[in-house]
Design brief:
The structure holds 3 protein chains of 3 kinds.
Chain A: E1 3-9, H1 13-22, E2 27-29, E3 41-47, E4 56-58, E5 62-66, H2 71-75, H3 78-83, H4 87-92, H5 98-101, H6 106-112, H7 118-123, E6 128-132, E7 136-139, H8 140-145, E8 153-159, E9 164-170, E10 180-187, E11 190-196, E12 203-207, H9 212-222, H10 233-252
Parallel strand pairs in A: 1-3, 2-3
Antiparallel strand pairs in A: 4-5, 5-8, 6-7, 6-8, 9-10, 10-11, 11-12
Chain B: H1 13-17, H2 24-27, E1 33-39, E2 45-51, H3 53-56, E3 61-65, E4 96-97, E5 103-109, H4 112-119, E6 123-128, E7 165-173, H5 176-181, E8 185-193, E9 205-210, E10 216-220, H6 225-236, E11 243-247, H7 263-273, E12 277-280, H8 283-288, E13 295-304, E14 310-322, H9 328-337, E15 348-357, H10 371-389, H11 393-400, E16 407-408, E17 414-415, H12 421-431, E18 440-442, E19 446-456, E20 466-473, E21 479-483, H13 492-504, E22 511-514, E23 516-517, H14 532-559, E24 566-568, E25 572-575, E26 580-583, H15 584-591, E27 601-607, E28 615-625, E29 631-641, H16 648-667, E30 697-702, H17 725-737, H18 748-753
Parallel strand pairs in B: 1-12, 10-11, 14-15, 21-22, 29-30
Antiparallel strand pairs in B: 1-5, 2-4, 2-6, 3-5, 7-15, 8-13, 9-10, 9-12, 11-23, 13-14, 16-17, 18-19, 19-28, 20-21, 20-27, 24-25, 25-26, 28-29
Helix pairs in contact in B: 6-7, 9-10, 10-17, 13-14, 16-17
Chain C: E1 2-7, E2 10-15, H1 22-28, E3 47-50, E4 53-56, E5 69-71, H2 77-90, H3 99-112, H4 118-124, H5 136-146
Parallel strand pairs in C: 1-5
Antiparallel strand pairs in C: 1-2, 3-4, 3-5
Helix pairs in contact in C: 2-5
The chains are: A alpha+beta, B alpha+beta, C alpha+beta.
């Protein structure tokens, strides 16, 4: 059972940061969807609701997304999805249900770096930076590979470009956790292919090839998967090929 | 008929749809004690020591009970008629724990938080044994799940507990081996169905209090209040006369609540402390520590002539009852007795079975009750036979299926009064345009396949299920109908009222159906075995007819005319020859006015000597993705023969709901354990039931036969509807991909890699 | 901690534990339509509106709702009744345990989506589990409800 001894709606990021450093068990409370299943005691739960971090701000070069923006906000944001070939929408729409997605925040989703995360896999096919209060900007790929920081994600920046990209996943049933997810970012001749829910955290592979089949086969040869309740190692490898081919075909239509 | 075969709105619909507090937890006393259970982390262990001293010091902790505090009698939690065919193999708390989740201690506190806090402070020392987890290795294993001496059996069920055999049986019809030798084709296959969670939305829950008269009252979300009364009496070692069980609205049961669960804990705590207490199971507890469908492995051999006439079927079922034997001996029976009669023209059949104990969660009742498992095996091998012979699977069934007016040797020699199975299958074919569709179509990215299955169930348990009802004429001329059958959302309160209204020629609104209270409701075995409409329905008809006679007799006294002169049309009581008439309203009020008046109450009970099977045909159209193996049920058509349909809406919803559950069973529901015996699927995150995106389109129609033994020609519907999806979808996938998956669920992984698990 | 939450238009001031979940708070204050069906945010039974958006009350701290507006089924009497009519006429409530959460989400969907297709409806409501009905009856009721003003007659008013 999750216990929270004190609850603090902070007035500034500085206050939140200070509380976070004070005790290693203090915790930012985001959507709380995963946190609430934990059996632990949090001395101070830190709420960032009052810090105006729940907006998506578009400028010429980018979308600056506050950490408290919900997954649902991203899912239905037309301009963002137009610019990103529906990558965010495709990565979000199958997550549990609308009520869940109205609570889950992008900051919480990114910070927890779950292996099965569809969000991380999708962000990795975008030019995307994570803004940490203390650590500053960090490329999404570096962030995914970094250790947990006692820091606060304040924003996520998605840069606009004209590259082609696609997110795809396989779920054994409609709203289940992905058995494998995959995103493709076509950057010139290079395909940056991210595979997540392996079930380990998302990993990016850079692949070139003459045709979709070849690329998918190359990915399958390289991808490192293992087995769990949702899929065996062998099936995940087969899926990496299958999903990659589907994604490449979809990109071909963009 | 005015009230039968109508889409009558459920009596409780608007209360439920406006969120009224009508469920168990809503009704519990706000400040009652809360019970939480410390559960075993080991699959098999002996408790050497429990130290509760520190836990007891937490303020707000009222009591902590361990195996040392409970009565010594063993009992069963199975909600079955006495003498139960389930072994008396459990105690409220036992020194031996037999699966991960088995109860170790009851922590009673002022609130949940305190109870959980205290629970962490209980120190238990276990002697951990090696568990027996694989049911296929149970018989004669060196690990014995029940080696206690006070184990008790009430019925002969072929039990050999020291060999881990809970029950064993063989039924033979002619010489199977001899007939097999004469067959042109003989196939042998092994099928495996998994444990499934009933997963009703309302988890297990009960509360208890001592009433005005010092008796124990237990309010519980149960399908079997009268059986719970006996279970509590057995468990607590107190007379039944001291116990009252009340059933409010139930948030779904599907058989899960045909087995007692947390009632014994609330009742024990309240009886011991003489204070109200409640216990609400979490979803995790409901998954890991209540009951599930029996996992079964079935070996089937089928023999046929080359023109597709099935000659003989030999079925062996091995069933896993888990740590305790609830419903073990009875579910397994249905795997044969409700699958083989579908092919009633066979010259010989053999059905043998073993039910074994293991250190996994207890199995229990789940819609279909063994028939679902057996029909997956038998319908699958019939589909495989059709494909081997190159005969269309529907055509093969028309050649072999059971027909009306046959005696069924494998169905306890019952005579089949009513059967429209042939019409069901023909209609299903028509609905899906079967004639114009090949069994396999390549769609490019996907392959489409068609698969079929037929099914039967029973209507109540012949000569065992008994239902009584009591109907009273009230002032102003409305009626109260007291029943002991439990509406668990299925709508029996309404369906039975429709029958009463039909008999008494009034509106359904004029019949008030009362919820179940063992002190006030007439005895009924409960809502299970697809019994309510058929068995309780007949008692409603009987009681209403008696009441009608009473009305006429009493009217003859009040009007002072001969009873033969009186006619009653539901509203008016008329004696034409005597030129006298009285409205029912006025009559009822005069009955209550004293003087010559008489209060009119009629009661009746019913036992059926037969259990007429409802039938169903289902055809699945599935798409299989070539790159991922993903299976989508594109279209599912089903046609049911449940005799006369009493409530057209509710029968449809029952069917659609059963099919959706069947789709879940077929495609992804799978209770599995870690090597140490921990259940992996302990939440809706890890045990996926179908969402509305998973069920595709389900289309339902009815082809009614008329069952003379049922009320207005009705048979049952509740269970038959879950049986066809698994074999139909398995066959559709096989047609699409060429791979037969014989171990459920049929996952994309098995399909894409063409690898069955077994 | 002290909180002020407006529930169904009425202010409730209370002193609650920091970790009290909105679901427990609502049931404590008598809003019994709100049900708990799981501990993993998967079932949708506890759906209520937070500032008019559907959320899972099992996953929301009431501390976080301080100063906000909550709506439960008890507060949507008229709209809920209109939809209930169609549900009842399909027999689609069955056990009724998931009905309040479903109704909250259907009414939220009605406000959010214009003329949703069947696919959109299924997607929007995917987080509302039901084990009784197989969802088809619910879909029939929802479709009829959403189309109630079309064809010139309102079935609910008859």
């Amino acid at each position: 059972m999750l216990r929270i001894q004190q609850y603090q709606k902070v007035k500034s990021l500085a206050e939140a940061y200070e509380l976070l450093q004070k005790n290693k068990n203090n915790q930012i409370i985001a959507g709380m969807l995963w946190l609430k299943m934990e059996d632990r005691t949090i001395p101070v739960g830190i709420d960032l609701s009052d810090l105006d971090l729940d907006k998506i701000i578009e400028d010429e070069k980018s979308f600056v997304i506050g950490a408290n923006v919900t997954l649902r906000q991203l899912e239905v944001h037309q301009k963002l999805n137009l610019w990103t070939h529906d990558v965010m929408k495709d990565a979000i729409k199958d997550i549990v249900g609308v009520q869940f997605r109205n609570l889950a925040t992008i900051g919480g989703s990114v910070f927890s770096r779950f292996g099965f995360s569809d969000i991380l896999c999708a962000l990795m096919c975008l030019k995307c930076e994570i803004v940490l209060y203390h650590g500053g900007k960090m490329d999404i790929v570096d962030f995914v590979n970094s250790d947990f920081q006692r820091d606060i994600i304040t924003h996520i920046i998605i840069y606009k470009d004209h590259d082609k990209r696609c997110f795809i996943c396989h779920r054994n049933s409609a709203t289940d956790i992905s058995a494998l997810n995959l995103s493709v970012w076509q950057r010139g001749d290079e395909y940056l292919i991210t595979v997540g829910a392996r079930p380990q955290k998302a990993k990016q592979y850079s692949i070139t090839g003459n045709n979709n089949e070849e690329i998918a086969n190359k990915l399958k040869a390289q991808v490192e998967c293992s087995g769990n309740m949702r899929a065996s190692k062998e099936y995940r490898e087969a899926l990496s090929y299958g999903l990659c081919l589907k994604a490449l075909n979809k990109i071909g239509e963009q | 008929m005015k009230q039968i075969n109508k889409p009558t709105v459920k009596k409780d619909a608007y209360a439920l749809l406006s969120g009224q507090p009508v469920f168990t937890e809503d009704l519990a006393l706000k400040d009652c004690l809360v019970i939480k259970i410390l559960r075993s982390p080991h699959a098999y262990a002996k408790i050497l020591n429990i130290d509760t001293t520190i836990a007891m010091r937490i303020p707000g902790v009222e009591a902590i009970f361990t195996y040392k505090d409970v009565p010594s009698s063993r009992f069963t939690l199975a909600g079955q008629t006495y003498p139960e065919p389930s072994p008396y193999d459990r105690k409220i708390l036992d020194q031996i724990v037999r699966y991960v989740g088995d109860e170790v201690a009851l922590v009673v506190a002022c609130n949940e938080e305190t109870a959980l806090k205290a629970m962490k402070l209980i120190k238990v020392e276990y002697e951990v044994y090696e568990p027996l987890l694989d049911f296929r290795k149970a018989i004669d294993n060196k690990i014995i799940v029940h080696n206690e001496d006070d184990y008790k059996l009430l019925c002969e069920i072929g039990n050999e507990r020291l060999r881990n055999i809970c029950s064993h049986d063989v039924t033979i019809y002619n010489d199977v081996d001899e007939i097999m030798r004469t067959c042109d084709i003989v196939l042998t296959r092994t099928y495996h169905t998994k444990a499934n969670a009933q997963a009703m939305m309302e988890t297990m829950r009960s509360f208890a209090y001592i009433d005005t008269y010092g008796r124990l009252s237990c309010v519980s979300s149960t399908q079997v209040p009268f059986h719970i009364r006996r279970i509590l009496s057995n468990a607590l070692e107190i007379p039944k006369s001291k116990i009252r069980v009340i059933k409010p609205r139930i948030g779904g049961g599907f058989g899960a609540k045909q087995t007692g669960c947390c009632e014994i804990f609330a009742a024990f705590v309240t009886w011991k402390l003489k204070k109200p207490s409640k216990i609400i199971y979490s979803r995790e507890e409901t998954f890991t520590a209540s009951n599930s469908r029996h996992e079964m492995q079935m070996q089937v051999t089928i023999g046929a002539s080359k023109d597709g006439i099935i000659q003989a079927i030999d079925l062996y079922t091995l069933s896993n009852t888990g740590a305790y034997g609830e419903h073990g001996s009875t579910t397994v029976g249905l795997s044969g007795h409700k699958s083989l009669p579908l092919y009633n023209h066979i010259k010989a059949a053999r059905f043998s079975c073993d039910v074994v104990y293991t250190n996994t969660m207890t199995a229990g009742a789940y819609r279909g009750y063994g028939a679902t498992q057996g029909q997956f095996a038998v319908e699958s091998i019939v589909n495989e036979l059709a494909d081997e012979l190159g005969i269309d699977p529907c055509e093969l069934r028309f050649k072999n299926m059971v027909k009306e007016n046959e005696t069924m040797p494998m169905y306890y020699n019952e005579f089949l009064n009513s059967c429209a199975l042939d019409r069901c299958l023909a209609k299903a074919m028509e609905m899906i345009d079967y004639k114009n569709k090949p069994l396999r179509v390549d769609l490019g990215d996907k392959v489409r396949g068609l698969g079929v299955a037929i099914s039967m169930q029973g209507s109540g348990i012949a000569n065992v299920d008994i239902a009584a009802v009591e109907i009273k004429l009230q002032d102003d001329g409305f009626y109260t109908l007291a029943i002991g059958a439990t509406d668990m959302g299925t709508g029996c309160d309404t369906v039975l009222a429709q029958m009463a209204a039909e008999c008494l020629e009034c509106d359904v609104d004029q019949i008030v159906t009362q919820g179940v209270d063992t002190d006030f409701s007439p005895y009924d075995t409960g809502s299970y075995a697809s019994a309510t409409t058929y068995v309780t329905g007949m008692s409603v008809v009987k009681a209403c007819n008696l009441l009608k006679h009473q009305i006429i007799d009493e009217a003859s006294v009040l009007l002072n005319v001969e009873p033969e002169h009186i006619s009653f049309d539901g509203k008016m009581i008329i004696a034409i020859e005597d030129d006298k008439a009285i409205s029912l309203q006025e009559f009822a009020n005069r009955c209550f006015a004293g003087g010559k008046g008489k209060v009119l109450i009629a009661s009746a009970s019913h036992v059926s000597p037969t259990s007429p099977p409802p039938f169903m045909a289902g055809i699945a159209e599935v798409d299989v993705d070539k790159l991922t193996g993903k299976i989508s049920v594109n279209d599912y058509v089903a046609v049911v023969d449940c005799g006369t349909v009493i409530n057209t809406n509710l029968a449809r919803i029952q069917t659609e709901g059963g099919i959706a559950q069947g789709i879940g069973m077929a495609l992804f529901e799978d209770i599995s354990y870690t090597p140490k015996g921990m259940m992996r699927n302990n939440s809706f995150m890890q045990y996926k039931i179908p969402t509305r995106l998973d069920v595709g389109s389900i289309r339902v129609a009815f082809e009614s036969s008329y069952e003379d033994n049922g009320p207005f020609g009705a048979k049952s519907i509740g269970e038959v509807v879950i049986n066809t999806p698994s074999p139909a979808i398995a066959s559709a996938v096989a047609h699409a991909t060429g791979t037969y998956i014989r171990t459920l669920p049929i996952t994309p992984q098995k399909v894409l890699l063409q690898k069955d698990e077994d | 901690m002290k909180i002020n939450i407006r529930v169904n238009g009425k202010m409730i001031s209370d002193d609650v534990a920091c970790d009290m979940l909105l679901l427990d708070f609502l049931r404590y204050h008598g809003f019994y339509s709100v049900k708990r069906g799981c501990e993993t945010s998967n079932c949708g039974l506890c759906t209520v509106w937070l500032d008019n958006k559907p959320i899972l009350s099992c996953s929301m701290l009431c501390a976080k709702c301080d100063g906000h507006e909550i709506t439960t089924l008890e507060g949507l009497k008229k709209d809920a009744e209109a939809f209930a009519y169609f549900m009842a006429n399909e027999g689609a409530e069955q056990c009724g345990f998931c009905s309040p959460g479903l109704i909250m989400n259907v009414l939220a969907m009605e406000k959010e989506l214009q003329h949703p297709t069947e696919e959109m409806i299924k997607n929007y409501l995917a987080g509302n589990l039901c084990r009784c009905t197989g969802y088809m009856g619910q879909l029939r009721a929802i479709t009829k409800y959403l189309n109630r003003h079309q064809g010139g007659k309102n079935e609910a008013d008859q």
